[in-house]
Amino acid sequence: MGALVGGLLWPFVLLPGTGMIRGAAITGMINLVAAAVVALILLRRQLSLRARLIAVVAMLLAASLIGWLLIAASDIETTARQRLYTDPVVAAERSAYQEIIVTECNNDTRLFLDGDLQFSSVDEHRYTESLVYPALSNNPQRVLILGGGDGLAAREVLRLPSVQEIVQVELDPAVIELANTRLRSLNGGALEDPRVHVVVDDAFR
């Protein structure tokens, strides 16, 4: 039962809520408490005083190490994350759905979701235009965009004079927030345009 509960807590609670390093440290602290209960309460009559003292010292040292890990977790994660990307990381967030990373170098802004490159500002227009304009050939008045929470597709759609309304469906509200802040200069504030109605939900629904 303990393994089942622990196995469910890690992906659904600890990892999204505390991150990799802090989640591991909290897990270690739980194990340490369990060891203390076993050594100092359940087996107190079977262990000699010397053995119990050694156990206490060992657990205090382990608790100190885990405490340091909890304090230094942010710096460790920042250093480890930066080593994964060529350019400096300027924004990083773990949402309920994914890890969101933005890097910048010179005039190149890049968005990564779970480590996968979504776009580079140097050439994203080629992809965005080729994705959007064939679907706009009949000068539509209403357009539905599924995904595309970075606002780049909406930016292109808004350039068409016939468009009166865009419904933008995006699963992750953290991506919408990023589009309206860090990425606003790239999408031209498209998601804040009065013609755009943003729906935060699963597109399959």
Key terms for this structure?
Rossmann fold; 50% helix; 20% strand; three-stranded parallel β-sheet; alpha/beta
Can you lay out the helices and strands and say which pair or pack?
Layout: H1 2-18, H2 20-42, H3 49-84, E1 89-94, E2 99-105, E3 108-113, E4 116-120, H4 124-132, E5 142-146, H5 152-157, E6 165-170, H6 173-179, H7 184-187, E7 196-200
Parallel strand pairs: 5-6, 6-7
Antiparallel strand pairs: 1-2, 2-3, 3-4
User: How would a textbook summarize the main sheet?
Assistant: 4 strands, antiparallel
Number of domains: 2
**The CATH H-level homologous superfamily of the largest domain:** Vaccinia Virus protein VP39
**Mean pLDDT, all residues:** 91
How much beta, percentage-wise?
15-25%
Query: Which structural class fits the helix and strand makeup?
Result: alpha/beta
What is the tally of helical segments? Answer: 7
Contiguous low-pLDDT stretches (5 residues minimum) are: none
Number of DSSP-assigned strands: 7
Quickly name the level 1 CATH class of the largest domain.
Answer: Alpha Beta
Coarse shape: elongated
Elements, N to C (H/E):
HHHEEEEHEHEHHE
Q: Helix content range of the residues, please?
A: 40-55%
Summarize the structure.
The chain is α/β, with parallel strands linked by helices and 205 residues long. It is 50% helix and 20% strand.
